[in-house]
Amino acid sequence: MPKFAANLSFLFTEFDFYDRFEAAANAGFKGVEFHFPYDFEKTEIAERLDANGLMQVLHNMPAGDWAAGERGIACLPDKVGEFQDNVGLAIENAKVLGCFQVNCLSGVLPEGVARETAVDVLIHNLIFASAEFKKASIRLLIEPINRFDVPGFLLNTSNDGMSVIEAVGSDNLFLQYDIYHMQRMEGELANTIDALLPKIAHMQIADTPGRHEPGTGEINFDFLFNHIDSTTYDGWIGCEYVPRSSTVAGLAWMESCR
């Protein structure tokens, strides 16, 4: 059975943030992830994790001004210094939470900046970041995101992600493979997972259309979960979907995976 982690930025949102940890544990999850820890008390999060027997399996680096539309700053030429400062902040939080991997959102291509320039900035930043995270024994990940949900996002396909990973050349930079985003961009999920398995450190799921729970859309998750189980993948699968009703009511899909 795959190891599923509840994404608390999407699931159990009917609860106060700190109460979502207990709700996730009560629903049978052993791991959790969420977008950002930086606006919360990290010691309080650590206590909630410990009290509920949960593992923090992923969070993101700071992503800039989210309300203003920034979705990461790693490719922004004028924010290299801020990015490097954020590496230290992310490491500090991950250590307190016992989180062994952190995702770096590449960002949206800025107006007036050539794509080649933004990719070069991203590679430069990831060379620095992957080395710093390695010193802290934390894996660094990058994630391709579909261009429909986030227009202008720099990395859209698995090939985009892998080309950057190869250019960085670090043994501490991995791919976060989001099944929802990659179904929208390229399909061919099982074969792509097989081909990229050595560099996939984390997966995430949602069905499409609608980004709801498995079984509500076009992806054959029964097949896909069995296929992933047949591989050597031993990482977590984050449930990063929008429940169609309440979170608990939408968890029936997990019964077929037990």
What labels would you give this structure?
TIM Barrel, alpha/beta, 258 residues, single chain, 35% helix, 8-stranded parallel beta barrel
Mean pLDDT: 97
Order of helices and strands: EHEHEHEHEHEHHEHE
Largest sheet: 8 strands, parallel, barrel
Assign the CATH topology. TIM Barrel
What is the beta-strand fraction? 5-15%
What do you see in this structure?
The structure is a single chain. The chain is 35% helix and 15% strand. It is α/β, with parallel strands linked by helices and 258 residues long. The chain has a single domain, classed as Alpha-Beta Barrel (TIM Barrel). An 8-stranded parallel beta barrel has the order 1-2-3-4-5-6-7-8, surrounded by 5 helices. The longest helix has 21 residues, at 115-135. The protein is globular, with a radius of gyration of 17 Å.
What's the quick description here?
This protein has 258 residues and is of the alpha/beta class. It has helices at residues 20-26, 42-51, 80-97, 115-135, 158-168, 179-185, 189-196, 221-229, and strands at residues 3-7, 31-33, 55-60, 101-104, 139-142, 173-178, 200-205, 236-239. The chain has one domain (3-257): TIM Barrel (Alpha-Beta Barrel), CATH 3.20.20.150.
Give a topology summary.
Elements: E1 3-7, H1 20-26, E2 31-33, H2 42-51, E3 55-60, H3 80-97, E4 101-104, H4 115-135, E5 139-142, H5 158-168, E6 173-178, H6 179-185, H7 189-196, E7 200-205, H8 221-229, E8 236-239
Parallel strand pairs: 1-2, 1-8, 2-3, 3-4, 4-5, 5-6, 6-7, 7-8
Helix pairs in contact: 3-4, 4-5
